[in-house]
Structure formats: structure tokens, C-alpha cells
Design goal:
homodimer; mainly alpha; Monooxygenase; globular
Amino acid sequence: MPEYLGYIGGVLTTCCYVPQIIRVFRMKSAREISLLFTLMLLVGVVVWLSYGILLSLGPVILWNAIALVIIAVLLYAKLKYGR
Amino acid sequence: MPEYLGYIGGVLTTCCYVPQIIRVFRMKSAREISLLFTLMLLVGVVVWLSYGILLSLGPVILWNAIALVIIAVLLYAKLKYGR
């Protein structure tokens, strides 16, 4: 049971940024998206990825590697459409 | 070393939403914030919290309990200022 929760939680907290990115690209505006939020999240995901690699934690590596790609797209959207 | 990374990663990926919330309250607008993003994140954090409680994982419980409060405020901001 807890393992399923780990997968469901991972999918939700990793993929939740996809509808946010779609919204920014549709509206062609990211003024309301905080740059500090995006940068803290990106650095945080890199730190978690390093943690997973150092401790050989498969799910931590998997979710954070996927999150890294997604958040990088969000940062691109912020830099393109923000301000 | 990896333990420090876990704390740094946890602080960053939990507290990154604070500047986002401050930005929404300052701009008094949350149109660009995706409601689906906010809801997926909230449900995801609740699932991670249940996972932590079931497996008695202290840091997982701690970070997700803090995140739950923060994301609830983000949802409030979205419902107040969005659309």
C-alpha cells in the first residue's frame, strides 16, 4: 500500500507543473510566475537528484530527473514570457 | 553529506512556493496560476504525507506537513485572485 502512495504522490508532485507550463504558453504571459520560485525549485530538484545519486535511491533519481526537465521548461517559459 | 543535501533540497522544494504566494498577493492576480497545478500539488502533498505517516518517515512527514499549509495558502490565493 505505501509503495503505491509513493508512486501516486511522485506522479502528482512531479507532473503538476505540466498544466502550469501549458497555461503560461497558452496565455503567452508569465508575469505572475515568481522567478525566485522557479529558481529555488530548480536548484532544489538538482540537490534532491544529487542526494538520490549519492544514496542510489532509484525513485528519488527518477522523479527528480523528470522534474528537472519539466522545471527547466518552466524557467524557459518564465524568461520568455515573464515581465 | 547526503543528509545535508536532503535538508537543503527539502527546504528549497518546500519553501519555493512562498515567493510565489507573495507575488500573487502583491499583484492581487492569480490568473496565470493553473488551478489544476495547484490541486494536483495539494493532493500530491497529502498522498506523500500519508506515505510518510504509514512508513513513519520523519522528514517526509515534516516537509509535507509544512508544504500542505503553504500550498493551501496558494490555493486560497488562486481562488481569491484567479479568474
